[in-house]
Amino acid sequence: MGLEQTQGAAARERIARLRQVMRERCVAAVWVPTSDPHLSTYLPGRWKGREWASGFTGSLATLVVTAEYAGLWVDSRYWDQADAQLKGSGIATVRTTNAPGQSHLDWLAANVQPGQVVAVDGAVLGLGLARSAATQLAAAGVVLRTDLDVVAEAWADRPPLPAAPVYAHALSPVPRTDKLRAVRAEMGVLGATHHFISTLDDVAWLTNLRGADVDYIPVFLAHLLVEPGGARLFIGAGKVPDALRAELEADGVTLHPYDEASRALGALPEGTRLLVDPRRITHGLRQAVGKGVSVVEGLNPSTVAKSRKTDAELAHFRNAMEQDGAALCAFFAWFESALGREPITELTVDERLSAERARRPGFVSLSFSTIAAFNANAAMPHYRATQASHATVCLPGQQPRGLLLIDSGGQYTSGTTDITRVVPVGETTAEQRRDFTLVLRGMINLSRARFPRGTRSPNLDALARTPLWAEGLDYGHGTGHGVGFFLNVHEGPHGVSPTMPNDSTTALEPGMITSNEPGLYRPGRWGIRIENLIAAVPDRKTEFGDFLRFETLSLCPIDTRLVDPALLSREETDWLNAYHATVRERLQPHLQGAGRDWLLQRTQPL
């Protein structure tokens, strides 16, 4: 039996298990989101229920199962991947766009009969989504149950909670006591006496702790309850060493069992005013709050505070970018020398680049799964090569042709990196160079932006798209996401994307870091994305207020062999040459031999 048949058979068997539990529980449909009790982007194995049931490994999808139907709702980033991984499973790929009426909730409201039950685990369902789902399904007469975890009952070999130890982040420049004091001050402004936090990066940032419970992200499973005179950290037994526990207790942070968080919320004294963030807490935890407690809803103060990197944190970030850039230069030097001499696949690219990063000081792990995509594979923004399915870039004696896209990043104790470069493999076409140059112009356009402090970040998205729009072109993802300080590679509350809330929560402030990654994708042919991380920093003060600009943090040459100079303005050419001069100056001390030679060659003025 082939791999696809084996995977399809496994998914069919697991869907059958779900249906058996559904019959026993009198449930007409089960809804399986991609989520955990902390609403994380990357999930510990224990909560990869959607992946377990469907076999689909993408980072975002929603599974719906009824007695007769199973469907996986995915957006355009995952259509091809879902088609391939669901083959033989009996699960349909439901291709969603931004058009109304296409969500799984729309399907459930239209296809589940009035009076029947839809079950979803409220312990992993975001509060805001739970509210909208209840309203929509109730309007169709459908009953929503959030107190039943069908997946858990069907999943016999479900992984346990992760047990990786927690450690102090030595480079955190602000003491946890100061951070907690600032959070309490914000609580006071909102009239709250207590504040419950579940998002893992908020907990890690506030406590100056890091862990390894989630792939690629140095966080740990915990909830935090901030009180007037201290804070309670709900965390697994044995995860905090005794010496660190003593440090935390000295700072007013006491440790409690992970599974006692819900009971603690239910035991809060009457008259408590509890601050929760409805976008960052689950329905199940909100339901646990005692009846005599007044709930104040607002953005977690730590979410905003950690997005505004201090000068000391930005200095650490610059160090991380130098180490990361040096690793990339060493990799590209090998890559260009190996073309035509060694067998190179997309998997080889991932392995060699990861090895170069691992050699750099302060490296801890990758910050996400490396995307190494050759030619048509690069047209899928979230493509990932696997042992079962990957492309060969070249073989010895060959003269391959095409474009190789590499989107990768690292977690260093001094910062989190995320960078995308596209390089030519052999001869390229005028159309490829034109596409690359248009994307580059959009990236430069955003890099050079100056704007009033407090500008809402989604409003800047059009700057990166304008050169493409002028040619009738576009891309289907946001232009940028926030990035954490040795934390989440995708961090809120800000981001340069038209789908983000255009409100005060996404206002740009000094110290905020975002990715800058416009793209262009031609299905079946090639994909182009160029990405740097940029930080909002003070620019000038005028009679119209304080203005900000972006400092480009990422350091790696942009391949000028793919640039059509005739399409660049003088200002754009000057920006590119100045960027390369900075890259050369900053990276040269970290390189020697072939890596240094490659750097000098690829940073020559255009």
From TrEMBL:
Residues 316-535 form the Peptidase M24 domain. Coiled coil: none annotated. It comes from the Bacteria. GO terms for molecular function: aminopeptidase activity. Keywords: Aminopeptidase, Hydrolase, Metal-binding, Protease. Gene3D superfamilies: Creatinase/methionine aminopeptidase superfamily, Creatinase/prolidase N-terminal domain. Residues 547-606 form the Peptidase M24 C-terminal domain. Residues 14-138 form the Creatinase N-terminal domain. Belongs to the peptidase M24B family. This is Aminopeptidase P family protein. It comes from Corallococcus caeni.
